[in-house]
Amino acid sequence: MKKLASLFREIDRTTKTNAKVKALVSYFKEADDRSKLWTIALFTHRRPKRTISTAKMREWAAEKSALPLWLFEESYHIVGDLAETIALLLPTPVQSSDKHLYHYIEEMMGLKNAEEETKKEWIYKSWEELNTDERFLFNKLITGGFRIGVSQKLITRALSQALDIEEATIAHRLMGNWSPVEDDFQKLLTEENEGDHLSRPYPFYLAYALDNEVEEIGTPSDWLAEWKWDGIRGQIIKRSGELYVWSRGEELVTDKFPEFRVFKDIKEDNWVIDGEIICFKENQPMPFNILQTRIGRKNVAKKHLIDAPVVIIAYDLLEWNGVDLRNQAITERRKILRSFVESISLKQCILSPELDFETWGELSEIRAQSRAHYAEGLMLKWKEGNYKVGRKKGEWWKWKVDPMTIDAVMIYAQRGHGRRANLYTDFTFAVWDGDKLVPFAKAYSGLTDKEFEEISRWVRKNTIERFGPVCSVHPVHVFELAFEGIAYSRRHKSGVALRFPRMKRWRKDKPAAEADTLENLKKHIN
CA distances (Å), 21 to each of 12, 29, 47, 156, 226, in order? Predict the structure, then answer.
């Protein structure tokens, strides 16, 4: 645990990528193998299931700190992070411990069916032997909110350097259905295991946003263009007769999409399709919010299969007859993919159409029609390019349409987390419905640090009421919100739900009375 706390301090004090990688390399060379594997799991969102409720954690922390619960709660609202609040308020530890990270995690997992008093005793004992940083990380493990500002790409890079193994190989080995409980660090990352590759997807190739003029990327005839679909990026894998469906978030989602079981019945075997999983009905894509009704469900009911059927829009073939195709040009991969999709003729598998154009001007006009096709814009892929690992610049570009915008009034504010715990960064916005303001969206990004500091000072002086960590404020400030999509929603009071809302600018030039209306907001719906 001490080594993880030291790693945390090194990473937390810098924003430089190389410094973070250096700290990770040092950790992966020095820590014990079981803790290293758990660290990778934590950093790549494979956290163990919570066995102790946060409500009990708050209650026990207040008791251990000799504070009334209301004062602990007030402290929590100020700090903005439960794990940090507990770490700061607990009394000085009376002893230290040399226990490793894996000890604490596996002990915690073993408490799943334990009595409440047993859990409390274990929590108290752990708090008493950990310093502030160690307690903070320990609390994060318990609450399930483990975030440390390190991407999977940095983890992969650090492991590559620490183990002297190619980064692409490490990325491949970290994908798939592995477990820090059942797997061994050395076996997972340094040994070749043929059986492990059956279910394992390929690392996804990610595009960069096209921020400059499209003419700057070269000659139009050198590029393939297709719609940028608004769904879940995924890979469908069939090897040795078994089927696996993976999301880009490295989650095995086979059971969430039973429609894809039909792939098991086709004779073709040992292939991997890369594409977009979307809801599709009556020969057209459905809005992303329809797909969201299925994403978080453990069990898919018959109603979901009828109301929100899914397909995969196939745009790449990464493996065919057991052969890795990624080093071939995309034009070659697409030829095989086209023949495959046409031969199997399944309604659950649609080939992503290539768009015909001769000039960038023609393609720009096509791009302007994106929303009519339920797309976010275009994907541009260099025809001679192979399939790379991660986000690489130059050969794959996403050329999205400009976001939709609306002018809205800020009505609620909430403090941020971590380094922003003392600033108000999370806001709720409303539009006019007659003479009433109706909340319709939350946003927490888009402002500069200076603007966050300015609006935070204003919130502190203009709070009307407090509802736990949320403050209602005088409705006077207007912000222009940008968003990628909008759809009707019965779950929201406004009747609509936005896709990726964020603050585009603070409209200090506009009074609240001139903010947009709910009627105008709904006009954005196709």
Answer: 12, 12, 21, 9, 36
- Rounded distance between C-alpha atoms, residue 144 and residue 139, angstroms: 8
Q: Is 24 exposed, middle or buried (0-12, 13-18, 19+ CB in 10 A)?
A: buried
Give pTM, 2 decimals.
0.66
Query: How much is the pLDDT for 255?
Result: 82
- Would you state the pLDDT for residue 416? 80
Tokens read off for 86:
């507990």
* Inter-residue contact 101 to 38 (CB < 8 Å): yes
Tell me what percent of the chain is helix, strand and coil, each rounded to the nearest 5: 40, 25, 35
CATH 2.60.40.10 at 404-522, yes or no: no
Residues 414, 467: Cα–Cα separation, whole Å: 10
Query: Dihedral (C-alpha) 411, 416, 422, 428: value to the nearest 10 degrees?
Result: 0
Yes or no: say if 213 and 397 are a contact pair by the CB < 8 Å rule.
no
Paired tokens of 419: 């380094």
Sign of CA dihedral 206, 211, 213, 218: negative
Residue 75 amino acid letter: S
The DSSP bridge partners found for residue 478 are: 409
Query: Rounded distance, CA 71 to CA 447, Å?
Result: 32
Task: Give the pLDDT confidence score for residue 415 in this predicted structure.
Answer: 83
Question: For 210-293, where are the E strands, in sequence order?
Answer: 223-229, 232-239, 242-247, 271-281, 284-285
Name the token pair of 110. Answer: 């073993």
Spatial distance between the Cα atoms of 286 and 278, rounded to a whole number of angstroms: 7
The two three-digit tokens of residue 169, written as one number? 């190989």
Residue pair 276/232 in contact by the 8 Å Cβ criterion: yes
> Do the bridges between strand 205-206 and strand 390-391 make them parallel or antiparallel, or are there none, so unpaired?
parallel
Q: Does domain 205-400 have CATH number 3.40.1190.10?
A: no
Q: What is the separation, in whole angstroms, between the first and last Cα of the chain?
A: 53
Low-confidence ranges of the chain (pLDDT < 70): 145-149, 168, 176, 193-197, 250, 296, 298, 417-421, 526
Distance, CA of 226 to CA of 18 (rounded, Å):
36
Contacts of 233 (CB under 8 A, 6+ apart): 204, 247, 248, 274, 275, 276, 277
Q: Quick count: other Cβ atoms within 10 Å of Cβ 188?
A: 20
Quick one: CA torsion of 165, 167, 173, 175, rounded to 10 degrees?
170
- Using CA atoms, how far apart are residues 295 and 256, in angstroms rounded to an integer? 7
CATH superfamily, domain 2-143, is DNA ligase, ATP-dependent, N-terminal domain (1.10.3260.10)
Length of the chain: 526
Residue 42 buriedness (CB in 10 A; 0-12 / 13-18 / 19+): buried
pLDDT computed for residue 183 by the predictor: 87
Domain boundaries, the chain: 2-143, 205-400, 404-522
